[in-house]
């Protein structure tokens, strides 16, 4: 096992990794920008190295500075967390060249799954269901339009290197196709330096359901059940739960085995997530694979009693995964608490937190780097905490989440806590009858409640 690792990330995920490392007797090195000097991950790591100014491109995305920090502190491995460099194949390759273990998959695995069109081709070869669409990326608008007409509108144009909804356009009719196609290519080129896009059938009334997988270097791959991530705004997840309200044992087994086949296409090592769209008839289609730990990994941990960070570290160190140790039981829900004002179209709310009281009690977990007196910087993602609760069943879980949200007091800035509280009272959520469009098309936040 490693004696010391560097965490190439910030905030709650950096603190999450530090906690598991401490329990395992592993020393940690935090890296931080000048904006994060007072963050808890800096305080609780064994060592900390400033790697640059606030802007991510000058700090958390600066590979030479991160490697220099690892070398001067004699770190044997780097955990990338999520976001930033977590799915950067070049970063994984450079770590390899410098004899520093990248805690995640190899560069080839990241490349094979990071490019959506290549990943889709691999899924077809291995019999994993995929959404009908173009055969790889396509740049000619006339050819793309012919494919769209063939598979039938509505279709979706997606950036192959994309994420977070950028480089993505839904087209409902042929007359609008050319404009939307060129708009997606332009946005993809600006956002990712890669304008390549592909065309797929747009699945109506979809659910976003993902399968957590783990693989070791000895050829064993297993899954830990599903998470329902359908509640999204602007293609960003708001709330996640496990198990999904729509997934039964038979569908779970089918999706789990499909996810394992997907991971086997690259002989996957480490923690990863295979994301599927599920239609109203419970047909499922491969969407993409994330080759990293997910923001929402705690809900899987709560229903399987796993420590996914520990699993990552053990696999990276060459240890075999224990066979058949993961069993799902009970229910878990995670609410992402963002520093945003839901009354003003979720405008970011940076600034000083004057009061920060976390909820407690049975089966309540808070993953956060914030505290009373902490200044939320305007530079990064607005998520400041994840509130996770578990219970024997979904209704008890919802009741516990309502209680915990009411106990969660954050003052000095605006947060999405009131938004989540109203969501807990919504009949469609309580009944589990929602799609990926529910929050933007049907759920209306009322600031006067």
Structure explained in plain terms:
- The protein has 15 helices and 22 strands.
- The longest helix is centred in the middle third of the chain and has 16 residues.
- By secondary structure, it is an alpha+beta fold.
- Helix 7 packs across helix 8 and helix 12 packs antiparallel against helix 13.
- The chain has three domains: 100 residues, Rossmann fold (3-Layer(aba) Sandwich); 70 residues, 2-Layer Sandwich (Dna Ligase, domain 1); 235 residues, ATP-grasp fold, B domain (D-amino Acid Aminotransferase, Chain A, domain 1, 2-Layer Sandwich), CATH 3.30.470.20.
- It is globular and about 60 Å long.
- Strand 9 and strand 10 form a beta hairpin.
């Amino acid at each position: 096992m490693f004696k010391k690792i560097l965490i190439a990330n910030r905030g709650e995920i950096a603190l999450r990794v530090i906690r598991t490392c401490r329990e395992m007797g592993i020393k940690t090195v935090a890296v931080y920008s000048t904006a994060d000097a007072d963050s808890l991950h800096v305080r609780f790591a064994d060592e900390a190295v400033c790697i640059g100014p606030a802007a991510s491109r000058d700090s958390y995305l600066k590979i030479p500075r991160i490697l220099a920090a690892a070398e001067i502190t004699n770190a044997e491995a780097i955990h990338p967390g999520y976001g930033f460099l977590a799915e950067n194949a070049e970063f994984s390759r450079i770590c390899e060249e410098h004899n520093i273990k990248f805690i995640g998959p190899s560069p080839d695995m990241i490349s094979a799954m990071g490019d959506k069109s290549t990943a889709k081709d691999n899924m077809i070869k291995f019999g994993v269901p995929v959404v009908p669409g173009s055969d790889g990326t396509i740049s000619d608008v006339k050819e793309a339009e012919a494919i769209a007409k063939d598979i039938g509108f509505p279709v979706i144009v997606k950036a192959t290197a994309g994420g977070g909804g950028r480089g993505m356009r839904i087209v409902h009719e042929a007359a609008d196709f050319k404009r939307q196609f060129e708009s997606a290519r332009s946005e993809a080129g600006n956002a990712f330096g890669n304008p390549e896009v592909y065309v797929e059938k747009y699945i109506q009334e979809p659910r976003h359901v993902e399968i957590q997988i783990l693989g070791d270097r000895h050829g064993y791959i297993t899954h830990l059940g599903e998470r329902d991530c359908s509640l999204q705004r602007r293609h960003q997840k708001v709330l996640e739960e496990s198990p999904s309200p729509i997934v039964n044992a038979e569908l779970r087994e089918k999706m789990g085995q499909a996810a394992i086949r997907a991971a086997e296409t690259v002989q996957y090592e480490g923690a990863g997530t295979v994301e599927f769209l599920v239609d109203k008839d419970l047909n499922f289609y491969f969407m993409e694979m994330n080759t990293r730990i997910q923001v929402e990994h705690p809900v899987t941990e709560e229903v399987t009693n796993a420590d996914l960070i520990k699993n990552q570290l053990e696999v990276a160190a060459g240890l075999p995964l224990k066979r058949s140790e993961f069993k799902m039981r009970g229910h878990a829900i995670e609410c992402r608490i963002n520093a945003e004002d839901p009354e003003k179209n979720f405008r970011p709310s940076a600034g000083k937190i004057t009061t920060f009281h976390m909820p407690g009690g049975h089966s309540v977990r808070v993953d956060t780097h914030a505290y009373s007196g902490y200044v939320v910087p305007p530079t990064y993602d607005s998520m400041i905490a994840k509130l996770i609760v578990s219970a024997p069943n979904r209704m008890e879980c919802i009741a516990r989440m309502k209680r915990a949200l009411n106990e969660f007091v954050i003052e000095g800035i605006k947060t999405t806590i009131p938004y989540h509280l109203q969501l807990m009272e919504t009949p469609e959520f309580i009944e589990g009858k929602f799609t990926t469009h529910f929050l933007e098309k049907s759920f209306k936040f009322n600031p006067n409640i």
